[in-house]
Amino acid sequence: AQEKKIFVVQGPYPIIRRQLRARGWVEKKLPSVGRQLEQHRSDQNKLRLEIGTSNGGGGQGKALLNPHGGAEPFLETTDPLHYPEEEKHCDEDPSGIHKLMSYLVRDQPPNFIWTNFLEATDRQLLQQDHVVNHYARVDAFTTKEGLCLSLQNLPWIEQADPNTFFPRCYRLGSVNELEAFIEDFRLTAARSLLKLALEEAGDGPMGTKKVLNFAKGAGESHDSCPMHSTAQPGSPLYPELVEEALEVCKQHLGVLQHHDIDRRTPSPCRTCINWDRFLQDYYRVAHEGAKLVLTRQQRRQCQNLLQHLAEQLPQLGMEGKLNVWILKPGAESQGRGKAEGNREHTEAPHLAGVPPSLCSPGIICTTRLEEVLQLTRGCTTVQVGRWVVQKYVEKLLTIFGTKFDIRQWFLVTDWKPLTVWFYQDCYLRFCSRPFSLCHLERARHLCNVSVQKWYKSSPDQDPHVPPDKIWSHKQFQEYLAQVGQADAWQQVLVPGMKAAILNALRSAQDQVCFRKGNFELYGADFLVGEDCQPWLLEINSCPSMSPSSAVTRQLCANVQRDTLRLVLDRKDDPTCSIGAFELIYKE
What we know:
InterPro entries: ATP_grasp_subdomain_1 (IPR013815), TTL/TTLL_fam (IPR004344), TTLL_monoglycylase (IPR051437). Keywords: ATP-binding, Cell projection, Cilium, Cytoplasm, Cytoskeleton, Flagellum, Ligase, Nucleotide-binding. By secondary structure, the protein is of the alpha+beta class. The protein folds into three domains: 1-32 and 93-132; 140-166 and 395-586, ATP-grasp fold, B domain (D-amino Acid Aminotransferase, Chain A, domain 1, 2-Layer Sandwich); 168-204 and 235-335 and 360-392, no CATH class. The chain is built from 20 helices and 15 strands. The strands form three sheets. Strands 9, 10, 11, 12, 13, 14 and 15 form a seven-stranded antiparallel beta sheet that branches. A four-stranded parallel beta sheet has the order 2-1-3-4. Strands 5-8-6-7 form a four-stranded antiparallel beta sheet, sandwiched between helices. β13 (520-528) and β14 form a beta hairpin. α1 packs parallel to α20 (550-572) and α9 (175-200) crosses α13. The protein is elongated and about 85 Å long. The model is unreliable at 33-64, 70-84, 206-212, 215-220, 227-231, 334-354 and 356-360 (pLDDT under 50).
């Protein structure tokens, strides 16, 4: 039985099929109707979004495979289902030998299964020697909602602070977390007002790193372009507004420093301030161009207070001063909610007074607390309990004035002991329009290929941005060297990404249901701050292997080849090459 080599592949994985055949494995073919039905991906994903089904391996899906024979079509998948030319070649069988071999093993169970979802396999029928490329219940870290909840528990598991690598995040379906978000939004507005006041006075906050953002283009500041003002230019907001912000921040600092233990200071967001009025005034300053009047004493107080807050708040620098937040469907990935053609927003019905942009499925950026609260009260296109709201990284590194993120692969081959392999090759994904915090459409802010493929590059895009919007990590390293940050990749970014991945895995380790012999390849997405610190956004349990560029065509093929080396070849030859994989953790 150990010599039997029968495999099943479900989904667009021609490289896996070709690599296994080259090793002498025989493919057990699935019914061809399965692939045709996969074309309904969009409708199925929309349905899953509406009913709140998780894509992380925790739900009950319809089985695709019975390992002992038989198959049913399975509709759910997150991969873009355009099949590249190499899959056609891989399916070509001029001599008919593959078809014949597949027929001969039609009643035999496969002992290697590579599929889009674990739910595609009847786990109860798996035998001990069967190998599957997924674990169960990984939605604890592969959905936005699950990752948000798991990392909240990290300080109880490890001596690590998620606020140092994961933008603070709240589940809107939880009453306690909704209240915590409202308080966070208000406190962030107060801190932001102090930053804006200092900026207007010709000074910047002390105690925060100032790093040049390279190659912005035309010297444009990404976060200092207020919208057309509805306020009168000659009617500044007087020192009382700054005084209120100072008082709130002083109280908050006291809470952070535990000075409130004896005197039981109530939350600074619930004392002596009319928050509705304060936020409206803050919006006028941050987004409508209203001016502040700042006394010399207030200027010194702002500087000192922000310096002390920076010592307590790891995200004070990256959070910026415009209080931008990002709303995400908690169980989705790949920036769900596509725009049609080159339009900036997907149109949707206007429901219960909620702006259409907030009713569209997918990720939404906002600067107004009222919009988030409207969503929790009135939007019915998605269960509100499945939404998370997360602080947007305003102070991020851009390249040629354009936002990008990093797709970083890693592989888990065991959960007890936890064994993690980091892939040393990764790639960057660019947006199709210049970065600006004054324009919050998806083309500028969501780097996912599944989002950006719906947009053409805008005329004001820097011509140095690659047409296919993809860079290899080697190109990024060359760029960093050109702008005087040659050591940032090895000394800051790579260690930061490794630490974030390990912390996320350890925070969810007890919730994962695993079986020996299985493995899973994941894709983590990171933003890069102005100081080159990586910020973890999400982890995908089924990273797309459909190439969208010359870079990803090569890298996706490599990571699939190296995965098979690691999980198959290494069993027989512990000294065999595992390509770009590096063991970074084993308990």
